[in-house]
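To the wet lab folks,

You asked to see what we're planning to order before we commit. Fair enough. Below is the target structure as tokens, and below that is the sequence we designed to fit it. If anything looks off to you, flag it before the synthesis order goes out.
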């Protein structure tokens, strides 16, 4: 999504110079008066030299090693985990991943929605398997995931719990038998 650009005029800059004080709520009042969001006013105040960025807000350039680690962990570890590992904010990690064209979604294991598609089962059914302890899940940041080995274990231990005619057959054969179902010879 592209950011909306705000055009500043000398009159608006003059208003900021006259009305801005370092008191709490001043930025919100100016933003409301100009019909923009707080961050737009704050950015302009910084650019005009009327205030300084918050401590630690200075942008630190990305090193080659950080970019290498980001590429290595993207899609394997959560954004939160990567941010902690590199000592950066989650927003900084997300923006750099976007710049590099990296996926933020963790690709390791299955989400509940993924299992629904693979088993041809409802959300409630998958959740019931989990709540009964038939399917062991692991927490990853804000979501849970099920490892491939755990899905195989579940299938072997509970062969009559799911309907085979509803299962994604190519996925099932690949998971259980390691067959190349891509259609490539």
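Sequence we intend to order:
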């Amino acid at each position: 999504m592209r950011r909306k650009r705000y055009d500043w005029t000398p009159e608006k800059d003059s208003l900021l110079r006259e009305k801005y004080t370092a008191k709490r709520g001043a930025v919100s009042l100016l933003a409301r008066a100009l019909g923009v969001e707080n961050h737009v006013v704050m950015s302009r105040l910084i650019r005009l030299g009327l205030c300084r960025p918050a401590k630690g807000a200075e942008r630190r350039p990305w090193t080659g090693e950080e970019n290498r680690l980001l590429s290595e962990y993207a899609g394997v570890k959560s954004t939160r985990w990567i941010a902690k590992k590199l000592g950066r904010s989650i927003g900084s990690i997300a923006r750099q991943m976007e710049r590099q064209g990296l996926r933020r979604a963790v690709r390791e294991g299955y989400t509940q929605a993924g299992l629904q598609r693979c088993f041809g089962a409802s959300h409630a059914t998958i959740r019931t398997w989990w709540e009964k302890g038939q399917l062991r899940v692991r927490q990853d940041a804000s979501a849970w995931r099920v490892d491939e080995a755990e899905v195989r274990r579940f299938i072997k231990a509970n062969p009559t719990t799911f309907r085979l005619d509803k299962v994604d057959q190519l996925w099932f054969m690949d998971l259980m038998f390691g067959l190349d179902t891509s259609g490539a010879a």
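Structural context that might help your review: Strands lie at 138-140, 143-145. The chain has three domains: 1-58, 64-100, 112-177.

Thanks,
Computational group
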